[in-house]
Amino acid sequence: MEPLLVLDAVDKHFGELHVLKSISTTVAPGEVVVVIGPSGSGKSTLCRAINRLETIDAGRILIDGVPLPEEGRALAKLRADVGMVFQSFNLFAHKTVLENVTLGPIRVRGKSAAEAKKRGMELLDRVGVANQADKMPAQLSGGQQQRVAIARSLAMEPKLMLFDEPTSALDPEMINEVLDVMVGLAKDGVTMIVVTHEMGFARKAADRVLFMADGALVEEATPENFFTKPSSDRAKDFLSKILTH
């Protein structure tokens, strides 16, 4: 099977800072890849580069065998094909929950309002907030808003979902309600790249763990191997700090 995503020697600088150092990996259709590592290791930049929210200095990123487009309509299409869920929920404050979910499919995918609404309600039901469809985002908890953001991304029927620390802005009691939705998506075969500090999610849902440090991809392994016998000293050090608490 051809990989859905190919990263080939991807390099990125912010001024003097070398944030991505020749990153190469592939992601297969239906695979769940969790990216972990210390803060400042380049995880979020990698995520944003896949959606071309960040440009890269060297290397190649291919989705379905096609290089990332530079700009214009091809880039808009890429953004529709690659869903992204951020730390902050980025919902339209002046639109209802359901309107947030249906706007993209109507405007970008050309769906009818009735079709988009039907699908939107199915997705809100899937993430457990169908009963909030007519509310404004500000009336929802953080966990509910993030689940709406996930539904909004899914409504575009993306080939790939990117999650950039989707639970880091949430209160502890809301984290699991979002992670539970993500575990469900993983079981349904949604191709996902998840940047997260939630090691339980990595263990439960990931097919593969990518460990990044100082802009480099230090290690990639199954969750079982990574958490029980990491091969690099950098990963051992990282895990010793986070798994002992």
Short description:
With 245 residues, the chain is of the alpha/beta class. The chain is 39% helix and 24% strand.
User: Termini distance?
Assistant: 40 Å
Mind summarizing the main beta sheet? 6 strands, mixed
Low-confidence stretches: none
Order of helices and strands: EEEHEEHEHHHEHEHEEHH
What's the Cα radius of gyration?
18 Å
Strand order of the largest sheet: 6-7-8-3-9-10
Gross geometry: globular
Quote the average pLDDT.
92
Task: Count helical runs.
Answer: 9
Approximately what portion of the residues adopt beta-strand conformation?
Answer: 15-25%
> Percentage of helical residues?
25-40%
Structural class: alpha/beta
Please tally the β strands and state the result.
10
Protein name: ABC-type polar-amino-acid transporter
Catalytic activity: a polar amino acid(out) + ATP + H2O = a polar amino acid(in) + ADP + phosphate + H(+)
InterPro entries: AAA+_ATPase, ABC_ATPase_HisP-typ, ABC_transporter-like_ATP-bd, ABC_transporter-like_CS, MetN_ABC_transporter-like, P-loop_NTPase
GO molecular function: ATP binding; ATP hydrolysis activity; ATPase-coupled polar amino acid-transporter activity
